[in-house]
Amino acid sequence: MTKLIVTTDSSIASAIQQAGLADLVIAIERRLVWGRLPSDAELDTFFAPRTTQPRGLHWLDDTPSWRLEESDAKDRGFIELLGEYDSVEFWRGPEPNAQLILLWLLDHWRRRYDANPDFVVRALFLGVRDVDPPRSDSYPPVVGITPRQLKSASRAWRAYRARTPQSWCNPRMDLTWLPNLAPDRTALLKELPRPASGLGATELRILRLIARGGLQPFDVFPGRRKHNEPYVYGYWEVGALLDGLARCERPAVAGLDEGPFSLEMHDDPIRFDRYRQSQLSLTEFGKAVLGGDENFRRHNRIDRWWGGTHLTNERLWRWDHETRSLIAPA
Q1: What span, in angstroms and rounded, lies between the C-alpha atoms of 192 and 326?
Q2: Is 110 or 256 the better-scoring residue by pLDDT?
Q3: Residue where one domain finishes, among candidates 153, 184, 215
Q4: Which of the residues 42, 143, 279, 297 has an alpha carbon 20 to 30 A from that of 291?
Q5: 289 membership: H or E segment, kind and range
Q6: Are both 206 and 281 inside the same structural domain?
Q7: In this structure, is residue 193 part of a structural domain?
Q8: pLDDT of the residue at 61
Q9: Is 223 found in the same domain as 109?
Q10: Strands 253-254 and 281-282, how do they pair?
Q11: Same domain, yes or no, for 107 and 246?
């Protein structure tokens, strides 16, 4: 009996493969919590057999080519490959981006195959860095997908991709059928700017950490010392947010001696070392923002995406953490 496992982290994919729990393990690491989302056509092309898709825009691009070639899976389409295995499982990581990949995958399945998926989902409650390679078929627990849940996943995916966050915020949307799906919806909403500070949850966490004193840039990044903290954004996204707090019209953070946080900077050892050793502190304005006396967005521009919503100063959707309510642009 042949088994295929699809997961959302290439590291855990390697661990599962080495543990011998499947004939083939595929990783999908597409980032959906940051930047402008692809069009419908681009999203469908991602799961189609490879033709002219550039590197990074096909569902098999995060899996080593040797592993694909050994299993005769290179350049295959998602639905095509799944049909060749007796058992298929989707191992979803604990972070919101993994939830979004699952919603996207289920929506694609429903629109292209129009049938209940013959695969199950296993929800990983810990990140790959917190666990040993899995050694039992009973880990992690299994969640089946019913036709009703398939429709619910499709509605949730469309809500995240909508031009406003209103549908995603709708309390009548059933998100109880998978562990952490409802909390992840709230975690994503918390990344919208707050009414008082004008900053999202990760930006506020960065300011709170810097306020303790004696921190360098990578002390505010997701990492082993903060592995119990929930997070929405990863390495490159947190670097961009820190840039936005320090390299703007009226900075909230001082002491960032290098930037922007780009691949070019990482490829330059001198620039990267200068960035790494920067000594961060809050400006007086940053202290006022953290204390609730100033609003960051009144003095600085915003131009980024939250799902399908384009956030700008003129079109700024906000999330009130205290009342757990969405605030439309004025």
Answers
A1: 9
A2: 256
A3: 184
A4: 279
A5: helix 284-291
A6: yes
A7: no
A8: 93
A9: no
A10: antiparallel
A11: no
**What would you report as the CA-atom Rg of the chain, rounded to the nearest whole angstrom?**
21
Residue 293 shares a structural domain with residue 222: yes
Measured CA to CA in angstroms, residue 27 lies from 121, 234, 235, 263, 328 at distances of 14, 17, 18, 23, 37
pTM of the model: 0.90
Distance CA(251)–CA(274), nearest Å, equals: 19
Range 240-256 average pLDDT: 97
> What is the pLDDT averaged over residues 264-268?
97
Which pair of tokens denotes residue 319? 């999330």
**Spatial distance between the Cα atoms of 54 and 46, rounded to a whole number of angstroms:** 10
Does residue 10 share a domain with residue 45? Answer: yes
Q: Tell me the pLDDT tens digit for each residue of 75-131.
A: 999 988 988 898 888 888 888 999 999 999 889 888 877 666 677 787 765 554 444
> What are the contacts of 318-322 at 24+ separation with CB within 8 A?
318/192, 318/193, 318/194, 318/195, 319/189, 319/190, 319/191, 319/192, 319/193, 319/194, 319/200, 320/194, 320/195, 321/190, 321/194, 321/201
Number of folded domains that form the chain:
2
Q: Which helix (H) or strand (E) covers residue 108, if one does?
A: helix 96-113
pLDDT reading at 134 higher than 60: no
Domain containing 274: what range?
201-301
Domain co-membership, 39 together with 96: yes
> Which of 184, 213, 245 is the last residue before a domain boundary?
184
Helix (H) or strand (E) holding 3: strand 3-7
